[in-house]
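> forwarded from #structure-qc
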């Protein structure tokens, strides 16, 4: 069903029945998006998502017949960019596919003000158009599409508390609502990549019960 829906809308689709076929397809050429079912023979979708994320930044949408918060959190925690629960409708699938692909092709948030080319904060650099995060050491840090959008939302609002609902809107995350742990897991992933776990004063601070704040001065260029 999923393959038919996407092909009818002009997408080029290649199906994989298990992890071995998926790895073979990934090695054969460029992939713009992976829709990954949690329930697969052999390795689970969660395990495959973790494997993919270790070697690629290709966007991933997880699919599951179980729409529980724990499943969304598990998918997010290993690097998924979005989540679709079965049964799903044609319009929802297409909307989520288009949104994730748009995020990868255009790093700008949908606001009137133009996005600067480069942000500098706490010896880090983020190049918006190139979608590159550069550590103080000069090494590039890989971010998923959802992590890119979250970081950009925080960089555009430094030293300001952003509520969960607003942060979901600014980061264009469609995985959950402000009442579940989806945005918290996404923030946790970004914190790890910024090395916040080793700092007495983390760059991303929690405003308990409300939201988050980027606790750093930001220079734009």
């Amino acid at each position: 069903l999923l393959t038919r829906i996407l092909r009818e809308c002009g997408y080029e689709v290649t199906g994989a029945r298990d992890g071995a076929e998926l790895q073979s397809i990934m090695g054969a050429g460029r992939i713009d998006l992976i829709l990954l079912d949690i329930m697969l023979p052999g390795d689970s979708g969660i395990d495959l998502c973790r494997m993919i994320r270790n070697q690629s930044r290709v966007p991933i949408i997880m699919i599951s017949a179980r729409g529980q918060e724990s499943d969304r959190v598990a998918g997010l925690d290993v690097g998924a960019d979005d989540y679709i629960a079965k049964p799903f409708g044609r319009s929802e699938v297409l909307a989520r596919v288009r949104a994730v692909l748009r995020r990868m092709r255009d790093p700008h948030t949908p606001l009137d003000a133009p996005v600067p080319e480069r942000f500098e904060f706490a010896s880090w650099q983020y190049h918006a158009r190139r979608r590159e995060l550069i550590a103080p050491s000069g090494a590039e840090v890989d971010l998923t599409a959802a992590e890119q959008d979250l970081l950009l939302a925080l960089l555009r609002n430094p030293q300001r508390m952003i509520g969960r609902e607003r942060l979901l809107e600014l980061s264009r995350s469609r995985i959950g609502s402000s009442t579940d742990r989806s945005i918290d897991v996404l923030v946790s992933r970004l914190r790890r990549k910024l090395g916040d776990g080793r700092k007495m004063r983390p760059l991303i601070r929690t405003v308990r019960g409300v939201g988050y704040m980027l606790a750093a001065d930001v220079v734009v260029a």
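QC bot note: The helical segments are 2-8, 19-28, 45-55, 69-77, 90-105, 145-155, 164-171, 182-193. The two ends are 46 Å apart (CA to CA).
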